[in-house]
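Weekly structure sync, notes
Attendees: PL, DS, HV (note-taker this week)

Item 1: indole-3-glycerol-phosphate synthase
DS walked through the input record. Source organism listed as Agromyces mariniharenae. Sequence as pasted into the shared doc:
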Amino acid sequence: MLSELTANAVADSLSRRETRPFAEVERAALERPAAIDALEVLKPSERVKVIAEIKRSSPSRGALAQIADPAALARSYELGGASAISVLTEGRRFGGSLADLEAVRAAVALPVLRKDFIATPYQVLEARAAGADLVLLIVAALDDATLRELFDLIVELGMTPLVETHSAEELDRTAALGARLIGVNARDLSTFELDRDLFGRLADRFPADAIKVAESAVLSAADVAHYRAAGADVVLVGEALVTGDPIENLRAFLAV
Ligand SMILES: O=C(O)c1ccccc1NCC(=O)[C@H](O)[C@H](O)COP(=O)(O)O
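Item 1 (cont.): predicted structure, written out as tokens:
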């Protein structure tokens, strides 16, 4: 599933590249105002922080929410106390787009994450050109050379890589990059099974200076408390916020 999602995302970016060549996207990326320093915004504090996700649908859950106006939802997230916004820009299975990211960027003052299946420099440039401050890199989808190349390009463009892992081996590959913002995703991206205890089992293996992000499977404040007790600095939440009252849920999650 992960290789299919990644291959499709790359194919879709190649289609866009036919009408928007590399040099044009690169120029647009370099002309954007500087990215927000997400490491500063998400740094560990006495309260857990939330990255709130714009998520219309997903391979595991199907349709979740209509979200006709992603900018309005992002403003609700900001009002509710989110520290950053994640925008799923993958179109085929998640119903997202780069236009969503641009709309969100224009609507809020928070750092914005491009959450997609990134495997090429062109996709990284697209992210910056659309106003992203962070870009997700999924270790399981990338060989070491590509991971290094994309990580360095994201940093060179002034953005922050959020490097997503699922195992001790992937965490070790991430540490070798010098990554400072590291996620453990509770969702197995092939079977879709959720394991909320995976974060806790891997928490000791994070580099000492890393910001620890627990991704997926937060449905209640108790789930946030579970991740927090295991050492999470930040939780990344999608489904619970797009299917429930975003402001009420954020306030409950942030009160943990
Ligand atoms: O959500 C999915 O079904 C999914 C399937 C395959 C690859 C990625 C997938 N989701 C991306 C995410 O990691 C989540 O959107 C994100 O962590 C929020 O998760 P949740 O709060 O459980 O919606």
